Amino acid sequence: MNNFLLSFFDERQPRRIRVIENTLRNRRTVSTLFWAKQYGILKWTGATRSLERQQVENSIEELVKANLIQRDPAGQVLLTTLGVLRQEELTSGQYQPHFFDWYWLANTRRIEQRLLLGIQVASEASYHNRYYAPVVNEYHEQQIVKQWLLSWHGNIIGDLVRELELFGDSLESADERLANYFFYSLIGHQITGKNDMQFSRQLELPGYQLPIIKQDALLAIAAFANSYHGVLNRLLADLLANSPLSQSANQTLLLYQQGMSISQIAQKRGIKANTVREHLLEAAIVYPELIDWDRALPVSIRTQLAERYQGKIVDWQFDPEIVPGGPAAFYYFRLYQLYEERVND
Predict the structure, then answer these.
(1) Read out DSSP for 265-291?
(2) What are the φ and ψ backbone dihedral angles of 232, each rounded to 5 degrees?
(3) How many folded domains does the chain comprise?
(4) Which phi and psi (to 5°) does residue 81 adopt?
(5) Lower CB density within 10 Å: C or N end of the chain?
(6) 233 and 122 co-located in one domain
């Protein structure tokens, strides 16, 4: 855990521990999304959903004691000189994810459950074996997999094998270790899959990197199922998201794009105006190309803010006394940060 967390810090940019923790755990507040984007770690959203706060606190304490990181007066963290050297040493041999840009596509825990059960059931069915312990005991998932197996028109075993071969080729072209991890983790007839110790030895990767390659493999299969409408798509389709936005934020954005005002959207959806603003900020962070910036942030407000805010946007401090908009002042402040980032990118 220590080496894993160390990779998220920087020697020049102070970083908030909670932002890193919430990003890894998929706690998608507007604040977390904004700062994760500034830190360049947005694609790590949901990478370790089971991460516990005490694990983070223990690791931070150990990294401080080892003089690899230091806290500033505000409680933010910077790498020390020794930490920079250690980070460079670790980076040289680290597994580099290939599919993390698809972080928004699926809850990989559910993808893993459904996929492993589906592969197991199909494998046992190919041997006409009805007596085995399912790898996943959730009744809902078992029923979905059963329906998937029985409703497929054609040779589901042959179609599944062909798709997995095609998927395997794409993984191998990205990284042979990724392909090996994926296929050796599958469970089937008289096949139990490898454990972490075996994976670590075979792939020549330290144990703390196995969750990274696992997340990469699951995002890869989600992306494949999303683009190839075959047997895997039929198995996993209901677990795949339509956009990087949360479902509620997506509904708000669609209404906004239809010309409705913030107050009209709030009334129609039965939510607070501030919630609508949060949804639009979420869209501006993760889907900026869909924002009508001239409408969302009028030139008059941009001009006022430009007179008061210059330099690095991460150094700006919100001041309700100088930002126009009244109750919407912080909304305009954050939007202007995102606007300037987009313009100067």
Answers:
(1) HHHHHT--HHHHHHHHHHHHHH-GGG-
(2) -70, -35
(3) 4
(4) -60, -40
(5) C
(6) yes
Q: H or E segment at 45?
A: none
Structure letter (DSSP) for residue 104: T
- Tens of pLDDT, residues 154-169: 899 999 999 999 999 9
213 and 118 in a single domain? The answer is yes
Residues 66 and 177 in one domain: no
Is residue 103 domain-resident?
no
Taking alpha carbons only, the member of 218, 224, 223, 217 closest to residue 177 is 217
Q: Which residue among 63, 94, 125 closes a domain?
A: 94
Neighbours of 51 (CB within 10 A): 19
Q: Domain span at residue 274?
A: 245-284
In this prediction, residue 209 carries a pLDDT of: 92
Whole-angstrom Cα distance, residue 223 to residue 192? 25
Burial class (CB in 10 A: 0-12, 13-18, 19+), 290: middle
In a domain, 162, yes or no: yes
User: Which residue, 119, 116, 109, 193, is CA-closest to 149?
Assistant: 119
Q: Are residues 119 and 165 in the same domain?
A: yes
Q: Are 55 and 34 in contact (CB under 8 A)?
A: no
| Residue 53, H or E segment | helix 53-65
Q: Which residues of the chain register pLDDT less than 70?
A: none
Q: Are residues 275 and 299 in the same domain?
A: no
Indicate the SS3 state at residue 79: strand
Query: Does residue 56 share a domain with residue 31?
Result: yes
Answer for the pair 269, 252: CB distance below 8 angstroms, yes or no.
Answer: yes
Tens-place pLDDT, residues 30-44: 999 999 999 999 999
Q: Is 217 exposed, middle or buried (0-12, 13-18, 19+ CB in 10 A)?
A: buried
This prediction has a pTM of: 0.90
